[in-house]
Write a structure and sequence with these properties.
Strand order of the largest sheet: 2-1-3
Radius of gyration: 20 Å
Structural class: alpha+beta
Distance between the termini: 66 Å
Strand content: 5-15%
Order of helices and strands: EEHEH
Number of strands: 3
């Protein structure tokens, strides 16, 4: 299991007009009924929720929304990177292969639309020829 305080990738930015009504259940938060842009795995139950929804639920109730007698704390949450990747792929496919520019994030390297200049250094100048 991941240590508390694990690095969370930035939430996925989705187009505001994305229709997610037929999204697979595994990608939809049981609390919000929306596509999870920041999926949080409850490591004690294996269930995944939208991070801000489950964080709010835990702070108000201290239990699992699906098993009300199971105590839960914020330390039981970890980023669900596999579900995040599936949500991103599903949304990208629905949008004709294009999503809005995504925030930079820790974790898997994403291909930047235009890499900063420092990543492609200029070729070294040849030494001037002696006169």
């Amino acid at each position: 299991s991941m240590a508390p305080g694990s690095r969370w990738p930035a939430p996925i930015l989705l187009p505001s007009d994305l229709d997610d009504t037929d999204a697979p259940d595994a990608l939809v938060c049981p609390i919000t009924q929306e596509l999870m842009t920041e999926p949080a795995l409850v490591i004690t139950t294996g269930r995944t929720f939208q991070r801000d929804a489950i964080t709010r639920w835990i702070s108000e109730n201290g239990t699992c929304p699906l098993r009300r007698n199971a105590p839960l704390s914020l330390a039981d949450l970890a980023p669900n990177l596999a579900v995040r990747q599936m949500v991103e792929s599903w949304a990208r496919e629905r949008c004709g292969g294009v999503l809005p520019p995504q925030p930079t994030e820790p974790g898997p390297v994403r291909v930047a639309p235009s890499p900063p200049a420092r990543e492609s250094p200029a070729p070294a100048r040849p030494a001037p020829a002696p006169p």
